[in-house]
Amino acid sequence: FFFFSSRRRHTRFLPVSWARRCVQETGKQAVDSKLNGLKEKKKEDEKRKIEEEKQRVEKENELRAKEEQRRKKLLEEQKVRVQEYKEKKEKEKVEKEEVEKQIKVKEEEDKKQEKAQFLKKQQNVLSEQMQKMNKKKEERDVKTVSYTHLTLPTIYSVQISVVAVSLKKK
Question: How far apart are the first and last CA of the chain?
């Protein structure tokens, strides 16, 4: 059997000298401090990211809240406008009904006036007819007895006429 050994094999993982051990320790400390620095930086980065995320979320929440308030305000304004529109339409409807009532009242008054005028005309016509009838009755009761027409000559070429009528009752 061959048994091959090397010195290096026995010293590979062991510090051979104090200088080498110092370098290893310094390197280990440097690596440890670098790792610690990196870990701390990583923690700080994570904290910063978390803080940024929190700020972003807060901003988003503020924006959402503002947007929600704006929507509510717009909704309220829209409700107010709708209510005003309904009130306006209701007012117009009431005014239209009042105008229609006034028109009906005016038409009724006009009809009454027309009827009164018609009745007055009829009454006038009737009274005229009654007067004519009374005149005819009087004419029947009265007769002409004589009719005389006389023309007289004058110096100034003017004619003078005299008419005499006499009536007698039966």
Answer: 197
Over residues 118-153, the pLDDT tens digits come to 889 888 888 888 888 888 777 766 555 454 544 445
* Tally: H helices and E strands in the chain: 2, 2
Give the separation between CA 89 and CA 82, rounded to whole angstroms.
10
Kindly report each contact of residues 118-123 with a partner whose C-beta sits within 8 Å and lies 24 or more positions away, as own/partner. none
Distance separating alpha carbons of residues 97 and 90, to the nearest angstrom: 10
Q: How many CB atoms lie within 10 A of CB 57?
A: 10
pLDDT at 170 over 70: no
Q: Give the three-state DSSP class for 1.
A: coil
Exposure string for 81-102, b = 16+ CB within 10 A, e = fewer: eeeeeeeeeeeeeeeeeeeeee
Q: What is the pTM of this model?
A: 0.39
Neighbouring C-beta atoms of residue 23, cutoff 10 Å: 13
Distance CA 114, CA 14 (A): 137
H/E segment holding residue 143: strand 142-152
